[in-house]
Amino acid sequence: MSFAALTRLQQGLAALQADHLERRRLLLDGAQGAQITINGQRVVSFCSNDYLGLAADPAVIAAGHAALDQCGVGAGAAHLITGHHRYHQDFETAFAQFVGKPAALLFSTGYMANLAVLTALAGRRHLDRGGEVFGDKLNHASLVDAAQLSGATFTRYRHGDLAQLESQLTKSDAPDKLIVSDLVFSMDGDIAPVDALLDLAERHDAWLFLDDAHGFGVLNDGRGGLTERARASDRVIYLATLGKAAGVSGAAVAAHAAVIDWLVQRARSYIYTTASPPMLAACLLESLHQIEAGEVRRERLRSHIMQLRQGLAGLTLGVLMPSGTPIQPLVIGANADAVRASQALLQHGLLVPAIRTPTVPVNTARLRITLSAAHSADDVAQLIEALHALG
């Protein structure tokens, strides 16, 4: 007997393949690093977010081994039952102190953290209408999904267009307003104008929520992309994901103590889930120490960024977007062309992903090059040579 819904799925998959939009998982053997084995092939990886090389750092691994012997594998319960371990608490305290905020809360993933903040602060509560969320159009998918799921009015402004954002804020009569932005945009590598956003938040009595997935550990001595003014503001809520430069897993939200207390009381993605393994929190504590003392790593990373940008001057393959972060997008244009370039690099032992629609706008498919302190100058030189050869 035919199954129409299954047939439609199969037709949809065929259409994705025809449009060069099909996604496939790569199989990693061994630890994450600058050189990895993917699908049985040894390659230099330029697609990891392990910006400081901490994912396989010996000190972080040793912290995990010690915690594993002490507290086992699983947390066993939600944080509000018996799952909140001393390691979780110690990391939250240390993280808040490091980023300069009064309090912090640890989440299992960045997706869960974004959902928690938007639903708890702007979502519909009982019979009250919800607030209004104002989001940059290039925000990460987790922020978009969280805004849509919150029940709040969701208003988007053109990327970086603060004049449009101000107009939207002026027209809003929502009781709670929440400006939401990536701090470092994941596909373009540019940085949000934090103080200008804070100006608008202050003028329109709004919260400012900044998702610093790609800036924490890298910018401003590792403390991330917050300015000192934003650090001191009670209306600024700061999120750092911990599976990128921190090299481990999860996310932390730092804010005024009342905000953190409110999340504990009202954030469903925190309340109704098993706590992350305490071992991971112990690894994060060590990772935080490595980030704090990691200026040598950051300087090496900055050197790689400069080397790549100087080396790709005059490249004919595509357009290297302006970025001073480890995210270096090389815009190719058509999906098929970006895929072919990625596959050609792989034949040279270089893993650089092709990013296509709907992740980026139509005709802006790109090679998303991400650099790490774990790379060597020779690794970067090899990539530069191969890209020029393709061009």
Main beta sheet: strand number and arrangement?
7 strands, mixed
Amount of beta strand:
15-25%
Cα Rg: 22 Å
**Alpha carbon gap, first and last residue:** 52 Å
Query: For the record, what is the CATH homologous superfamily label of the largest domain?
Result: Type I PLP-dependent aspartate aminotransferase-like (Major domain)
Which series of helices and strands comes N to C? HEEEHHHEHEHEHEHEHEEHHHHEEHEEEH
What structural class do the secondary elements suggest? alpha/beta
**Average pLDDT figure:** 96
The count of DSSP E runs of length 2 or more, i.e. the number of strands, is: 15
Shape: globular
> What is the CATH topology descriptor of the largest domain?
Aspartate Aminotransferase, domain 2
CATH class of the largest domain: Alpha Beta
Low confidence ranges:
none
Tell me the strand order in the biggest sheet.
4-10-9-8-7-5-6
Supply the CATH architecture of the largest domain: 3-Layer(aba) Sandwich
Can you lay out the helices and strands and say which pair or pack?
Layout: H1 4-18, E1 28-29, E2 35-38, E3 41-45, H2 58-71, H3 79-83, H4 86-99, E4 103-107, H5 110-122, E5 132-136, H6 141-150, E6 153-157, H7 162-171, E7 177-182, H8 194-203, E8 207-211, H9 228-232, E9 236-241, E10 251-255, H10 257-266, H11 268-271, H12 278-292, H13 295-311, E11 319-320, E12 327-333, H14 335-347, E13 350-351, E14 354-355, E15 365-370, H15 377-390
Parallel strand pairs: 3-13, 5-6, 5-7, 7-8, 8-9
Antiparallel strand pairs: 1-2, 2-3, 4-10, 9-10, 11-12, 12-15, 14-15
